[in-house]
Design a protein that fits this description.
Blueprint lengths: L2 H14 L6 H5 L1 H19 L7 E2 L1 H10 L4 H13 L3 E3 L5 E3 L4 H14 L4 H15 L2 E2 H12 L3 H13 L3 E4 L4 E4 L1 H4 L2 H12 L1
Antiparallel strand pairs: 1-3, 2-3, 4-6, 5-6
Helix pairs in contact: 1-3, 1-6, 1-11, 3-5, 3-6, 7-8, 7-9, 8-9
Length: 202
């Protein structure tokens, strides 16, 4: 999976995980972490698109984040990570200057943040069935085998991971056909606008 496609799934899946708590959230915390920062970076990029002065006041950043479901802890951590990565500059008054942000920069930066966070095999594996079932629906057994073989996971762990994907709405299972397909909430917004866009460019 290339960087751009991987990031698109990180962005989409982190959005699904916003409402997830407990063990499920803990097992996929690096997906949430990277995806949230990627969504923040993309939000900043959109606010300075085609603007010759790519600086956003602290109040505008705060308001934009509130309107887009990015809470204060996520905003503070995300701004710090992006600043340390040379993607933005934060002035003493909290104003944010976005340095050369493009769609590609957002995608690649988000993937780098995920990789640097030290994701578990489970977190890496969660991205794979999403991409696979986006191509065509899979039978549950086929999806379990695919994930297990790819990351050398025991069958019980691979099956548990598929259950986790279902419970967090990352993927959806049509129980009458035992077919796993992409969750409706993932197929709108980010994926249609990002994954498909990147595939057309490739």
């Amino acid at each position: 999976m290339d960087k751009k496609t991987k990031c698109a799934w990180l962005l989409a899946q982190s959005k699904n995980l916003d409402a997830v708590t407990g063990t499920g959230a803990a097992r996929l915390e690096n997906i949430s972490y990277a995806g949230h920062i990627g969504r923040l970076y993309n939000l900043l990029r959109r606010n300075v698109a085609d603007d010759p002065n790519p600086t956003i006041s602290s109040e505008t950043v705060k308001r934009a984040c509130q309107l887009n479901g990015i809470d204060k802890p996520t905003r503070d951590v995300g701004l710090n990570v992006l600043k340390n990565g040379g993607r933005i500059d934060v002035a003493n008054n909290g104003a944010v200057s976005v340095l050369g942000a493009t769609t590609t920069a957002v995608l690649e930066t988000t993937t780098d943040i995920f990789d640097e966070a030290g994701p578990s095999d489970e977190e890496e594996a969660v991205l794979e069935p999403s991409e696979k079932v986006a191509e065509r629906p899979l039978g549950r057994q086929e999806a379990t085998t695919y994930v297990g073989d790819l990351y050398n996971l025991p069958t019980t762990k691979a099956s548990s991971l598929i259950d986790l994907c279902k419970s967090t709405a990352i993927i959806d299972e049509e129980t009458d056909r035992d077919q796993i397909g992409i969750a409706p909430s993932c197929s709108i917004q980010i994926l249609s606008a990002t994954v498909n866009m990147q595939r057309k460019r490739c």
